[in-house]
Amino acid sequence: MMNHTNNDSLLVVKNLVKHYGPTKAVDDVSFCIENKEIVTIIGRSGAGKSTIMRCINRLVTNDGGTILLDGVEITNDMNKKALLMARSKIGFIFQHFNLVSRLTVLQNVMHGRLGQISTLDGIMGRYPEEAKEKAYEILCGIGMEDQTYKRAGDLSGGQKQRVAIARALMQEPHLLLCDEPIASLDPVTSRTIMELIVDQAKQRGIACLINLHQVDAAKEYSTRILGMRAGKIVFDDSPEQLTAERIDDIYGTGGTALNAPAQMVTIHPSIVEPLMEKEVLSVGQ
Ligand code: ADP
User: Fold this and answer.
1) Are residues 5 and 81 in the same domain?
2) Is residue 249's pLDDT more than 90?
3) Is residue 140 domain-resident?
4) Which among 18, 84, 168, 190 could disulfide-bond with 26, CB atoms 3.0 to 4.6 Å apart, if both were Cys?
5) pTM, whole model, 2 decimals?
6) What angle do CA 78, 100, 158 make, to 5 degrees?
């Protein structure tokens, strides 16, 4: 297991703790992400992957530990301006895209600039000409220029995720946080979306932290994999080190569910969610 504790890293997560009542969603987690790394987090549903992402982006506040981005601590009592500044360096890609359906593709992409314009301009949808040009340029770069003036709500799932990626790129982020970016997509579209995220991140020198259910995709696209189990990181290493035994260890399947070679294994939510429910029930008893 790698032990990254370098304070000069792009992202430093140290001894992070987050409770939901009696549930320790994140239990003393430490890791770092360097520039240009593509890091995926795998683990059963309920392992704490999304909670880590939400703590980094301050969608939830942590109960302990520290998070540094570009050497600046992201704290619970940060003022609004400092929080906006930190958030502007982080692009977020969600499972359900989070686009504004009634707005056009171009308007949704320009939302990536909301942190840099006044609230009134944001409400009125007034963006500088330069922002429009940049949004269009990004859409061209990802093969979506034909959809520029289409209503976002009329797009397919894969197209919506492309727009969400374009919106994140519009921020010129240092870090992309992708929370199950392919969980709502079919296998073929999933592949094109993973390739798009990784290609754009490489081209633009952006680091990625990607929460994935699919072990085979994690192995294929990451430079490093974090495995989480019950709120803790139990694996932090290169994809080559993720053997079938290590996968069993992360998913706690005791060798019963994962007899296929590691590169062929796909952990789908439908397999892992019933396991999680069992866990939750036993905690509640
Ligand atoms: P993962 O992303 O790995 O599926 P999560 O981070 O969503 O896991 O959840 C980790 C644990 O925290 C789970 O036990 C989940 O039920 C619990 N949890 C997550 N969000 C909340 C919440 N808003 N309220 C209560 N419990 C939560």
Assistant:
1) yes
2) yes
3) yes
4) 18
5) 0.85
6) 105
